[in-house]
Design brief:
The chain has 755 residues and is mainly β. It is 9% helix and 26% strand.
Length: 755
């Protein structure tokens, strides 16, 4: 880990968990933001300010409202003043502000989330929230065993339940104010709060944090608790830490008391106080804690011994909402099979030539702004990047790796002089404004987070393809993955010879993001065949819904056509195909010289911005064989360079002679089932799947009535990649389900048989 003064780390909390089956890259309703504490109060590693977890980010809307860019909640900028709880409820019901009338009282976790522990009285960032005479603010929640007590957040930064009679308007002596909130997206959770992971850890499905299930037997001082964190390895992870005060409070359940933590999951919780890593503002001897009898957040002297419960919210694939897809190795004919001619760079897709690529993993979607901002903040805190003229560059190197929002509004990640943050609604959209070296550096960082060996050498950015880490795909790998297994016949686009504008973000595709300012990107993985709701995505267009088609290709990859161009490893060489090797080609040693006298890396996949009309549809240059030097999307476009260029990542898959992976890190954590190919198919189709370890496996085919019509496999198989063929020549046309099961894991893919 990287700590301040010694080493610091920034932790991303992108809590969109794949097992919840939510829309790809779509936000969970509540994303806990960090405390705002930047001051160090101890030399012991692990205090609050040593970590950044969803950097606080607010937007003043200029209409009396403030939007929290993490939770997407919209807040009343100036509170409504002192009043009783009954009047506060009525006040919110009747409030019309900024054209909205759906205001309400916040829950405890919502109101507590805007606290800033670099401030006191109020513990709020008064750059955004107007300072008033309030001592407390009402929430909508009552104490579980005494309905006359209402949960309130106090101006000092704590939270607890108080008698509703304490406010001046009810005859008391204190000032309880109301601050209304409204939700831009749903804040209703339709799934269990916690999951017991069976390895001594508990996942919080509301915030995405992972918790120590059983606390240590002994109580500790605050300093002892910080030191204890570094001795713990649990659930295969060693980056456990003391939770900050917001994380700790997020475990509180106002419907429970004595304890207020759920004992169904935290079976060892005992009465008393639990430490947080957050110190009192400008106070070296006191730190915030939580009493689990009711969940009251207060503070205590750091020398007092209290209970300890550790948390982690690291940056591995799961925590970053990052999914690998296994791409099976294969031989194929690379190049343009359809006789296309591009006058800007003619003949660079011919001759069609035979290549073979090994199996590899590729990210299911393009890298998002939220994922990239985490990398930027980690690098900033480590001192490896700097910002000059609103552009990020490596320390000691003037070459730009990212253009910030302050440089031009096309880029979603801004820098406020201290930290990077996403400045608009595009957190889950592909990152743009990133340069090739920035993409390579992200790959190295992602490798570190997953315990893999880095591929790129910083500075030269040469790639060691034998290493296990993340990297950019080669051009041969990218085209193979983009084709999705469709080689008989070869197709013009990833899913056909014509373009379907409901499958991809292409120019003039009429999606709800085509209204407003550039870039007109869509969320990564947006085109998944589901009906999208404006209430979930907050898109700029006026449509309340948008029906997508499933744009995943045969390997389950999204946005391999359209949305943003994707950087790849290879230098662009106009005539490279005439001399390309057969075995895993990696491009020329040097690129073709562009009009500015420089060589550039290649890009693939097309974009939202421009293309060529095909059947009266603008294809965004998304033909699967299309090659493009990045020169044309950057330097040649000086008014808005790189605003339609992003990337996705890849890593190698190594297999031993026994079929088992040589490196544990190369195996998926669970079973993987690729989409069959071809699909639709006429007679037979290939089904590829990957197993994390040896075990009993069944692979069955069901018809649309739920009847099992074929058992393809029912046997013990080793871990690794497996391929199975289904000969459906004697089956009627229709929709079939392929079900892969291993112990308690089940995956299903839809197959379409045509004749």
């Amino acid at each position: 880990m990287l700590y301040s003064n010694t080493i610091r780390t920034a932790v991303a909390a992108l809590y969109i968990l794949s097992f919840l089956h939510l829309d790809a890259q779509k936000f969970l309703p509540f994303k806990l933001q960090e405390t705002g504490q930047t001051t160090s109060y101890t030399s012991t590693q692990g205090e609050d300010c040593d970590f950044l977890i969803n950097t606080q980010s607010f937007t003043s809307n200029g209409d009396g409202t403030i939007t929290d860019n993490n939770t997407l909640l919209m807040w009343q900028q100036t509170d409504g003043g002192e009043m009783t709880i009954e009047n506060a409820e009525t006040y919110c019901d009747n409030l019309t502000l900024a054209g909205y009338s759906d205001w309400r009282l916040p829950t405890g976790i919502e109101l507590f989330s805007i606290n800033n522990y670099n401030h006191l009285n109020p513990a709020l960032d008064t750059t955004y929230f107007t300072k008033t005479l309030a001592e407390y603010w009402w929430t909508s929640e009552k104490q579980a065993d005494d309905l006359t007590k209402i949960w309130v957040v106090n101006a000092g930064g704590g939270i607890g339940a108080h008698p509703k009679s304490e406010t001046i308007s009810a005859g008391g002596t204190k000032r309880f104010h109301v601050r209304a909130v409204r939700n831009v997206v749903s804040t209703t959770f339709s799934f269990s709060h916690f999951t017991d992971n069976g390895n001594g850890t508990v996942s919080d499905n509301f915030t995405g944090l992972t918790w120590q299930k059983t606390q240590p037997a002994n109580t500790m001082t605050w300093e002892e608790a910080l030191a204890y964190c570094h001795t713990v390895t649990l659930g295969g992870k060693s980056d456990w830490r003391l939770p900050n005060v917001k994380e700790l409070q997020s475990l509180n359940d106002v419907t429970l008391f004595k304890p207020s933590f759920d004992k169904n999951y935290f079976t060892g919780v005992v009465s008393g106080n639990y430490w947080s890593s957050t110190s009192m503002f400008q106070n070296t001897v006191k730190a915030w804690d939580l009493n689990v009898d009711y969940g009251i957040v207060s503070y205590n002297d750091k020398t007092i011994k209290e209970q300890v419960l550790l948390v982690r919210g690291g940056m591995d694939k799961k925590d970053l909402n990052f999914t690998d897809v296994l791409i099976p190795g294969s031989e194929y004919e690379m190049g343009d099979h359809k006789g296309h001619y591009d006058p800007s760079h003619p003949n660079d897709e011919i001759p069609v030539h035979l290549v073979i690529v090994d199996s590899f993993f590729m990210s299911k979607t393009e890298i998002t702004n939220q994922q990239f901002v985490t990398f930027l903040n980690v690098s900033l805190l480590a001192g490896s990047i700097q910002i000059t003229n609103n552009k990020a560059h490596f320390t000691g190197d003037t070459n730009t790796i990212y253009y910030t929002n302050q440089y031009a509004p096309y880029y979603s990640i801004g820098y406020d002089g201290a930290m990077f943050s996403v400045t608009d609604f595009r957190a889950n959209h592909p990152v743009v404004g990133v340069m090739w070296a920035g993409a390579a550096a992200f790959c190295n960082w992602l490798s570190q987070q997953n315990g893999l060996v880095e591929c790129f050498t910083p500075g030269t950015w040469n790639c060691n393809f034998s290493n296990s880490g993340y990297r950019l795909a080669t051009e041969a790998e990218w085209e193979h993955a983009g084709r999705g297994g469709h080689t008989n016949p070869y197709l013009k686009y990833e899913n056909g010879n014509t373009v379907d504008i409901t499958q991809a973000n292409l120019p003039n595709s009429l999606d709800p993001y085509e209204t407003g300012s550039y870039p007109l990107t869509t969320p990564a993985g947006f085109y998944d065949g589901t009906l999208k709701q404006k209430s979930d995505y907050n898109w700029p267009g006026s449509a309340s819904t948008y029906q997508t088609s499933d744009g995943a290709n045969g390997y389950g990859l999204y946005d391999m056509q359209g949305n943003v161009w994707e950087f790849i490893w290879d230098w662009y060489g106009n005539n490279y195909y005439s001399s390309s090797p057969y075995d895993n080609p990696k491009g020329p040693d040097a690129g073709s010289i562009m009009p500015d006298g420089k060589a550039y890396r290649s890009m693939r996949g097309g974009n939202w911005y421009n293309g060529i009309d095909s059947n009266n549809v603008n294809d965004g240059h998304s033909r699967v064989s299309n090659r493009d030097p990045s020169y044309f999307r950057g330097p040649q476009d000086p008014n808005h360079p790189w605003y339609h260029v992003g990337f996705r990542v890849a890593r190698k898959y190594t297999e031993s002679p026994t079929g088992m992976n040589e490196g544990k890190e190369s195996l998926p954590s669970g079973i993987q089932l690729n989409q069959n190919y071809p699909n639709p198919f006429q007679r037979s189709t290939s089904i590829i799947f990957c197993l994390p370890h040896e075990g009993e496996v069944t692979l069955k085919v069901y018809d649309s009535f739920g009847m099992c019509v074929a058992i393809l496999l029912d046997e013990n198989l080793p871990g690794g990649i497996h391929t199975c063929q289904w000969d459906a020549d004697n089956f009627p046309v229709g929709v079939y389900l392929c079900k892969l099961q291993m112990t308690n894991q089940l995956l299903v893919k839809k197959m379409i048989l045509i004749k």
